[in-house]
Write a structure and sequence with these properties.
Order of helices and strands: HEHEEEHEHEHEHEHEHEHEHHEEH
CATH superfamily of the largest domain: Amidase signature (AS) domain
Number of strands: 13
Strand order of the largest sheet: 1-5-4-6-8-7-12-13-11-9-10
Helix content: 25-40%
Number of domains: 2
Mean pLDDT: 93
Largest sheet: 11 strands, mixed
Structural class: alpha/beta
Low-confidence stretches: 59-76
Radius of gyration: 20 Å
Strand content: 15-25%
CATH architecture of the largest domain: Alpha-Beta Complex
Length: 399
């Protein structure tokens, strides 16, 4: 993460400047924590100075310890995200900061404690610069329905940004933050990432804690409980890996590998001609892989009776002869706002939803530009628990 090589105040000031420049046009943020973020950045730089003078600092208390041996390793500063400006989708509770789900009824809702994933990011040293806009209550793929106004595509404001993590993708694409914490229930992180030309990742089901989303409000229905995953949006695979290290306390290194992946090229995805052609070109750019035809496993989220059994058997059924599966992220190019209004799912999740049903790790990586100058996404999907391989192939593709 190049951000780690710069002073935190410098990083935060640059993000805030980008917010001032771009947010009026794209509407990526619901809440901007300008003063709080700068105060935290100054504190982070002070901690860095302490560390460089040979003093360990515990993240939980901020106390400087002359003898680092007296501090527990898990609390030693710096954390993997020390001083890095991060934004949070306005679904996750943030203590003392408005959390709304972009819903009018929750417009003044201020939770008392952080969602566990937010707390983990703070523990890792991240600086929260704000809460990103989203499709209301995560119930659409366009980002147009929000009490705080629609999110617009940073490449062209006449086009949608995708959804439901629309503000996050727009914020990352314009440098308003380094990365974001998101959700993905049918493609809600990967679809906007594809529309905005950034990377959107969701891990294996349960990899990142999902509690603390509008805590205390009406609980989600059973389908959302099963399909909901935490997501991460960033501009590089390395940034995603650093976020994951903070959110899981696991290492996803090495990202570089000489392994020859057996890659299944999906033949049964849905896509228009332009998306299909871009995907075929992207497949041709893969290096150090063995390609073969494969099928996307069928998924019907309306019937959850067999979801446990389906998840237990998907590796044997869909990945028996392959390590990873690739297909386009979207079925069409990015829709214009005027064409998407009134249809919450104007951007189809047909190529992303199966990964949620089966609980599979998946990432969308930029793979070109359509005829209108809007980005396209290339999706890499792995077996359950094989998040590392997904990141490794994504890094190889994006390099």
């Amino acid at each position: 993460m190049n951000a780690r090589q710069r002073k935190s105040v410098e990083l935060v000031e640059q993000c805030l400047a980008n917010i001032r420049e771009h947010n009026p046009r794209v509407n990526a943020f619901i809440t901007v924590l300008h003063d709080e973020a700068l105060d935290a950045a100054r504190h982070a730089d002070a901690e860095t100075s302490e560390w460089l003078r040979g003093r360990a600092v515990t993240r939980s208390t901020g106390r400087a310890l002359r003898n680092s041996a007296t501090a527990q390793p898990s609390n030693l500063f710096p954390g993997p995200l020390h001083g890095v400006p991060i934004a949070i989708k306005d679904f996750y509770d943030t203590a003392g900061v408005k959390t709304t789900g972009a819903f009018e009824h929750f417009k003044d809702r201020v939770p008392e404690k952080d969602a566990p994933a937010v707390a983990m990011l703070k523990q890792a040293g991240a600086i929260i610069v704000g809460k990103t806009n989203m499709h209301q209550l995560g119930m659409g793929t366009t980002g147009l329905e929000s009490f705080f106004g629609p999110v617009r595509n940073p490449h062209d404001p006449d086009y949608i940004a995708g959804g439901s993590s629309s503000g996050s993708a727009a914020a990352v694409a314009t440098g308003m933050c380094v990365a974001t914490l998101d959700t993905d229930a049918i493609g809600s992180c990967r679809l906007p990432a594809a529309c905005c030309g950034v990377l959107g990742f969701k891990g294996t089901y349960g990899l990142i804690p999902m509690s603390g989303i509008l805590e205390g409000t009406q609980p989600p229905d059973e389908m959302i409980v099963w399909l909901g995953h935490a997501g991460i949006t960033a501009r590089s695979v390395e940034d995603i890996a650093m976020m994951l290290e903070a959110l899981t306390e696991k290492s996803f290194a090495p990202l570089e590998t000489d392994r020859e992946f057996r890659v299944g090229v999906a033949t049964n995805f849905k896509a228009d001609a332009e998306v299909r052609n871009a995907f075929e070109r992207a497949v041709g750019q893969l290096r150090g892989v063995s390609l073969r035809e494969a099928k996307v496993p069928p998924a019907d989220p309306r019937n959850l009776e067999n979801i446990k059994e389906d998840r237990a058997s998907v590796a044997d059924r869909a990945f028996a002869d392959i390590d990873l599966l690739v297909l386009p992220t979207t079925t069409t190019t990015v829709p214009r706002i005027e064409d998407a209004r009134g249809n919450p799912q104007a951007l189809s999740p047909e190529n992303t939803l199966f990964a949620n049903y089966y609980g599979l790790p998946a990432i969308s990586v930029p793979c070109g530009i359509d005829a209108n100058g809007l980005p396209l996404g290339f999706q890499i999907v792995g077996k359950p628990q094989d998040d590392r391989s997904v990141l490794q192939l994504a890094r190889r593709f994006a390099s």
